[in-house]
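Hi R.,

Here's the chain you asked about this morning:
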Amino acid sequence: MLFDSRARTINRLLIVEDEPLVAFDTEHGLSEAGYEIVATVDRVEDALRVIEQEELDLVLADVALSEDGNGIEVAKEASRKGVAVLFVTALCPIEAQQFAVGCLAKPYRPRDLLVALEAIEAQRQGKRMRRLPEGLSLYGSCDEGQN
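And the predicted structure, written out as tokens:
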């Protein structure tokens, strides 16, 4: 890992994912890497409640949610509260860029998600990673689609 847990600013995460196996794998992998998963939800309503009630460092959100809306709604609220969002989705809509720090395209390997979080950490610290995982686009000060 690029940063140890003392230097990390991303610790508390919300996972918004409606595919149970993807949600489980994501939660398990991030927990094993030392991240605190505040909640894993599959509905916009539940995500908005968590964003309102909890201190979060990052929201991982799928864009296409099957139940009651989409991840862009979640990202808008998180952005309003000052919480960063990384979309994890098959296709990241252009209009979503204004509400997120980046997008990691599905399918992705578990290691790619960890490296994506490291890249967001680096971006926050004004640093730049030499190589981003395939399928990751960062918005803002990092070059999008840098590989």
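The beta strands are 12-16, 36-41, 58-61, 84-89, 102-105, 136-138.

Let me know if you need anything else.
M.
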